[in-house]
Amino acid sequence: MNDLIDHRIRQFWTADGGDAAHLPVSALRWLTKRIGTLTANTVVPEPTVPASALGETVRDEFVALVGKNYVLLTAEDRLGRAGGLSYLDLLRRRGVGTPEVPDAVVLPEDPDQVQRVIDICVRHDVGVVPFGGGTSVVGGVNAVRGDKSAVIALDLVRLDKLVSVDQVSRIAVLQAGVRGPEAERLLAEHGLTLGHVPQSFERATIGGFAATRSAGQASAGYGRFEDMVSGVRLATPRGEWRLGVAPASAAGPDLRQLAVGSEGTLGVITEVALRVRPAPKVHRYEGYVLDGWDSGSAVVRELAQHGVLADVTRLSDVDETEVSLALNTGWKTTVLKRYVRARGIAEPCQLILGWEGVTTKDFSARRRAVMAVLKSSGAVRIGKALGETWLHGRFSGPRQRDALLDNGVCVETLETAAHWSKLSQLHDDVRAALTASLGAPIVMCHVSHAYETGASLYFTVITARDATDPVGQWERAKKAASEAITGLGTISHHHAVGIDHAPYLGAEIGEIGLDILRAAKNAVDPTGILNPGKLIGG
Amino acid sequence: MNDLIDHRIRQFWTADGGDAAHLPVSALRWLTKRIGTLTANTVVPEPTVPASALGETVRDEFVALVGKNYVLLTAEDRLGRAGGLSYLDLLRRRGVGTPEVPDAVVLPEDPDQVQRVIDICVRHDVGVVPFGGGTSVVGGVNAVRGDKSAVIALDLVRLDKLVSVDQVSRIAVLQAGVRGPEAERLLAEHGLTLGHVPQSFERATIGGFAATRSAGQASAGYGRFEDMVSGVRLATPRGEWRLGVAPASAAGPDLRQLAVGSEGTLGVITEVALRVRPAPKVHRYEGYVLDGWDSGSAVVRELAQHGVLADVTRLSDVDETEVSLALNTGWKTTVLKRYVRARGIAEPCQLILGWEGVTTKDFSARRRAVMAVLKSSGAVRIGKALGETWLHGRFSGPRQRDALLDNGVCVETLETAAHWSKLSQLHDDVRAALTASLGAPIVMCHVSHAYETGASLYFTVITARDATDPVGQWERAKKAASEAITGLGTISHHHAVGIDHAPYLGAEIGEIGLDILRAAKNAVDPTGILNPGKLIGG
Fold first, then answer.
1. What ipTM, to 2 d.p.?
2. What predicted TM-score, i.e. pTM, was given to this entire model?
3. A451, closest residue in chain B (CA to CA)
């Protein structure tokens, strides 16, 4: 790789880019006791990368446009954009299965260059996979070639600017390639925050958040990402497309909500105008324990329907609570367990609450309202330490997962959302489906996003990896879980559709819905170069 | 009309259905002083209604499906669905211009019959105008025939049921033809409310609210109508289409936001699943006066950005405040004016604030937060009487308008929304455009819907009607206002597009946006029978 190229341009194929967490011995011992003997990884073979199928003419046009340093053709660079972070993606990074590798990586420097890259791809019928942080867990950035002769990863990392700030309207325009932490750093210079903190925060980008309808851990306080989107700018085969002139409108259907969630199939998002807020200066995170999943989720429902949710409101079920305590080794666990039992909690469910504000006054009244509900529910206060522990580990999931994978564990997450009256059944059915498929997995679940009419459910599944058929093992489990979800809830609350959920979209939005999405795509991308195979399938 | 037919089926062609308010003499005198001599209406000729162009075969199929009592063919019944309530519609009801009259009125009794009416219309290539309360002010229910041989008004008045209530999820499913008051009555039986109170509340329907992205006067508290929509059921030429399985989703674009606002062009909404809340038992409405429009709207902005808007928050500009006081005749006005001047207010702008709750505790903390902001802004409290006066007159606008029209006044409203940083310019530009076009009109404005990033502006224009060219007079003024809006704000915040705003939609959503809407329509309504000429034009 050329020395001139910014280090950000490097994307690692190797499992963890060197920053995987190490699994504590005690945690591994506990896991083995729960899920059985594990077969750790053997030496990982470097995958064979086929030669780039990109024609010389196209390549030369890319080079003329963005410069040769920003057209990457080495196997290493192409492998670095060969997928996201789903369990199957991570298995591929460990030598199981064949990655779909783009024929080139093109790195435009601004929205105008993105548009011209698209124009070149239209002329030469080359597929385009928009690539941000590469954190998709649903196959959303896999370099599917479809019927194209070649496919490029259009890496947006150089679109890293804060374009404008409107302090009066509280709107900031950010380019699509800005990652979570950088967005917060740029906004903090203006005393502002976005407040969008999904688990992928450290790597994921503004464009990716918008393209996938991301929801951050503080969504109760700051809203889902689509709630923040005031306007979007996209590069499409038909030229540039801009939306968003007002805070609300009755000028027909809200097409922003069609662009948001389009997962690169209707255009490449290059800029997003976002509602921002004053940067918080104080926070308060604390932990509670509620007794049982159903009564715990009833408490969260009450908070949501009273309009007093904490900015972060996160309820774990019994299993997740147990594992969470088990993996935090040491004396705390035992003491905590005894204390909770002594306080009369039979089935402890951990509740994390967090508030942020410029001063504590911003949330003190809201916190008091929550406390009133908690008191009448018999919640046991654990304290700030538990809240802070959660806060500091909030982005560590992906690293822990890498460590688990290295030790022969099959670990994946999946998520959904449903109306409150169906939430309990959804929780039970998905657990049952995963258990029936996998034998005796650990299935953990939490509510992380609550609304007046319902909530999300986020499942983490851990089981011993089937050394002979690891891919089939997970594919069958995922299918069983997805079928359990269909009819009760949505196939995704915040992970998006990508490739993995495409077979289930029709059951949710109907054949008419699928046809409308196809028609919209055909109107803007008649030759189908944009993110082939995603959202509406092949 | 057959006696068996429910009286609700009657729709009046005559201007006011007999319930127009009478304009007080003092108000008329004041008006004449401000806008000059008025030419009151002469005798209104009953319009000539062309014979129905509906073929006998189609008619017989309708009759076989819904029964002969629910296929209306008289001139009177057809005229009753020949338009909405725009100024030009009201002129047509006074003999100026030619109404577009449907060839028949068909009244199905349930969603299934609606679907079968659509099927018949597809087979015979008959246009379908969905008709709810008939309160469109943008031509949304005008019976445009387009390229069809005939067009029917599909009146949804018989779809008047509360289908289901999910108390746990706080979701109620209402049929499309339920009017505002009836929706509240049905929900009140379950201790619930929708809280959606636009000015059209008394006549407009659930389906119409959804089809046009309606916003109620208490939108700050209850949300815009689209925020309440949890799911929709539509009858389309492709068959039934249902959406909405979860409170939030990342399963691709949010197609509910495409159905909502589609104005009958993508399907006929037959049922809407709506987020509901506990019915309020107490309310508090009060009035304040702020000094000047810019500082007044800055106060509303501060409330919105602090997240403490009252459920109803409504700021009038200087002119609207003056007229509002003038039209409330009697001693109050003079005393009030002196009082306000004595308290140092040079340019009084009326602010109406309203809160609702099950108990006052539900809003006391929120009210205190508002009071803190008002205090530091120098607002002068007028008291509850002003708030209650507003509350009791909140739906009387249309009746007052009829009375004004009868007296030779040209009176119309138009509305928009923009980001806060553009609001002042938008206010000035629209006023200037209307004034330049109309000479010396009274132009009044208020903010009735505020958001973190911006607000709506609602203009009322009053001028002496040009007796020789009343239509041209308003068409020129409307064009001037619309052009002033374009580029600064949205062409409609809550009145929708219909026919009147269709020429300006392209500037707002781009040619790409228009093409996507056309493609979506073509996917679901390939022969274009649904509400011809609306939203995306002819």
1. 0.96
2. 0.96
3. B247
